[in-house]
Amino acid sequence: MSYTTGTAFLEALLETGVEYVFANLGSDHTSIVEAYAAGRRAGKKLPQLITAPHEFVAMTAAHGFAQVTGRAQAVVVHVECGTQSLAGAVHNAAKGRVPLLVFAGMSPATQEGEARGSRNEFIHWLQDVFDQRGLVRGYMRYDNEIRVGANVKQIVHRAMQFAHSEPSGPVYLVAAREIMEAEIAPVTLDRAKWPTIAPSALPPTAVASIAKLLIDAKRPLIVTSYLGRNLAAVAPLVRLCERLAVGVVESVPNHLSFPHDHVLYQGSQWNEPRQNVALAEADVVLVIDSDVPWIPQINRPSKDARIVHIDVDPLKQQMPLWYIGAEQVYRADAKLALEQINSYLDTEKVDPAKFSERRGHFEKRHAERVAHLKKAEQPSGDGITPEYLAACVGRAIGPDAIILSEGVTNFHVVGNHAGRTKPGTLMASGGGSLGWNGGAAVGVKLAKPDAFVTTMTGDGTYMFSIPSTVHWMARRYRTPFLQVIFNNKGWRAPRMSATSVHPEGLASRGDDIGVSFEAPPDYAGIAAAAGGAHPERIRHAEEVVPALERAVRAVREEGRCAVVDASI
Questions:
Q1: How far apart are CA 447 and CA 65, in angstroms?
Q2: Which CATH class is domain 204-363?
Q3: For the chain, what are the domain ranges?
């Protein structure tokens, strides 16, 4: 029961707020395995170890936990092989600004038995690479190698500073087995000496400038994508919009940032091949927390619109090509910036009647949008439309349930028709690598065990999520959730991309272009076999409501997952 670098490492994770270690263990983790065994025998508090049979799911689960709590969890994987198995989950955490700590061992650095942990398996030669950290360096906020056991806690705490400071994101640490096995003196560290960097505010001159632009505009518009990842930022946004009658559009939203039932809400825009009317009309556009506020080839502001940009990362430092033509750009926290503008307006005498015309304009547009959505949600014949399915799911789970959206070509359908109005009840991964939804549901349930969690996913994305691992973990760790599959029998997104570039091409007329899933797997059966999930398979509109009722009951009353495979 010696005190090793591995012991200090686990203590450091606990000190930094890590509750769960999502682990796929290998030969490089002997010190961690021993430290856990010793800790259990001694009754020592350590982060709970969660066994993840696949590394990708380990990271998506940590991702989901961090999304709803803001607290980074740890992912432990096996050398460079395990690091590569994280694959797209690393991309999602980086692009979604999700704080995570990934630790991977390295092949032992000795082979003659010079230290405890020296090479004793053939894989230790095969898994030794020149630059393991380089595999993920382009996505990490910080990466480092633990070289000395005595300062392992300083390294972990510094990594977590990066993970939690804006722009937040994943960090990556590695260490050779001999270093982790080394016996060291117990390490103590004052957590208060490693604070997260304080958020930035707007410069005073910017506050007055932005407020004046919004006051004097004819059609002011706010565009955002992820302001709602900080729940506390939503209220000051609503307050600003209400007092100045400013419309809101969510562009490629990965968090609900404005109540969808609010009269100033003008809807969302994804990849739809159309010009957004609210954006085209706007003479002042305030972009807050958005990576893709519009897609210029098909949707953009007018050439005379004045654009202001506020973001924690306005340069988009990990994006080689990025610009939106903003005349004012500020690095600032959305909540602080909005509170500053609201405080400035408190001191100004602005007549609310000044904004009555544009308020009426936005209210009228919102009412038209609601009427259009309700019409689309009506069942059409015997088949199941995506709009009808999303609306039925929203009603079945209730307004407080959390939806994890990964429907891809139905992203807009889920956002428009699932009935989410409260911040924190609708989110996507924030990135473009598919398969996040299943593991994320496990993580969200660990973080919020009393919440009802639903994933809405395409059939291709369901397979990307590695459902056999997801549902095994959900049963073992008692994290039941509802999974609804929008089954269109293949990858619809590549077909849409091909036809958008070649609308008159041969592929647009072809039935088989390599994206079909015929004959389809038994998606619900996979979950049932792997984790005892309640399976439903529906093909007709009249089956939707009864199937959802049974599925919701299985989750709420039986404490097990339910998978509804709906042919759309």
A1: 6
A2: alpha beta
A3: 5-187, 204-363, 377-567
